[in-house]
Amino acid sequence: MESCAGYGPMNGTSTVSDIRIIVEGLNDVRRVCDALSGSFLGSDYNASVTSIIPTTDVSIAHRAAQGAHVVIIATDADEAGSSLARALRERLDDGRCLVETVRLPQGQNIEYTDAAMLREAIEKAIVRAGLAGLVRYVPAAADNVADEADAAYASDEPEYDWDDDSSDEEPDDESDEEELLYEINRLELENKKYASRIGDLENRLNEIMIDSYGRYNIEEVWESLFDDPVPDTTELTMAASELSDSVHVSGNFIFAQGLKEVEVFLNEYRDTIMQ
After folding, report:
1. Fold observed for domain 17-131
2. Average pLDDT of adjacent 10-residue blocks, the chain of 275 residues
């Protein structure tokens, strides 16, 4: 997990949205940092990108996203990246946070995307997530406020005597409802803001592991072991999350601490998945 300076919250803000971005590899982390160096999320959206998570492991991504308000999935716009994005969104979109995917032209690789284009795509994804949040949370909160108001009206004595002509003023129910709705939303954000940070610590450990990994070309290693055609990288990406905790697949490469781990994984994949 990595955090970049230059696009966090501005001084004087009250509640700041915790945004985390998931990418496929360390080179993508650097590219996203470069892209966001010219962004002012704090002032424009009252939001802070607290971490950029380099992983293709759905379980690791799920743990690292715990406590976030918004999770942005920024994978390559190829077959493998799109498949991974769908798997991540299915796992992460459980109602605890807002999940949105960065939209890039077909075939575009995050690592080589123009910084301005990538920054705009990420900011648009954040806006889409915010709009989705309005649709998801505001109607439910409004219903709760209405139920509370009905219950209070049924149990309490009327505050105003409507037959008394001495006062022409009526109670401002709409203003009270707006205040209650604001308070509900504020408490919801505060609760998420102070949620457990265990996911951050676990992903920091994952980052340290990835930093010590070697990078091995899938095609070269496969052809040195087998005569079968090289498998699709999408299948290898999904298999890595199921078969091994010691290897990570990103693009055309496998990241592992040594060649032996890569060979063990590929042999297991060939024996179990391809049979």
Report:
1. Rossmann fold (3.40.50)
2. 46 64 91 80 69 91 90 94 93 87 91 89 85 62 51 49 50 65 69 54 54 81 92 84 76 83 90 76
